[in-house]
Design brief:
InterPro entries: DUF2281 (IPR018739). With 81 residues, this protein is mainly α. 42% of the residues lie in helices and 0% in strands. It has one domain. It is elongated. The model has no long low-confidence stretch (mean pLDDT 81).
């Protein structure tokens, strides 16, 4: 165990419980931020839900018609122009 790790553990032992949970949350944040550089344990791999990947172009071909006056100002807003 390194001196820095021992120092962190000593400081952690002196914190109140509410701050310990805050430190734990911060550690989780740091691990998530740098997730590619941390090897994951088997229990962590099963608990993580991956975000769905965006599907660029998934709506291609769904808009079949746009009226000719699509870009024209609306009649309701003519008073403001």
């Amino acid at each position: 165990m390194t001196a820095a790790t021992k120092n962190i553990i000593h400081k952690l032992e002196t914190l109140p419980e509410s701050m310990v949970s805050e430190v734990e949350d911060f550690i989780d944040f740091l691990k998530a931020k740098h997730s590619k550089s941390f090897p994951k344990s088997e229990s962590e791999k099963t608990n993580i839900v991956e975000e769905p990947k965006s599907l660029y172009g998934a709506a291609k071909g769904t808009i079949l018609y746009i009226s000719d006056d699509f870009n024209e100002p609306l009649d309701e807003l003519k008073d403001y122009m």
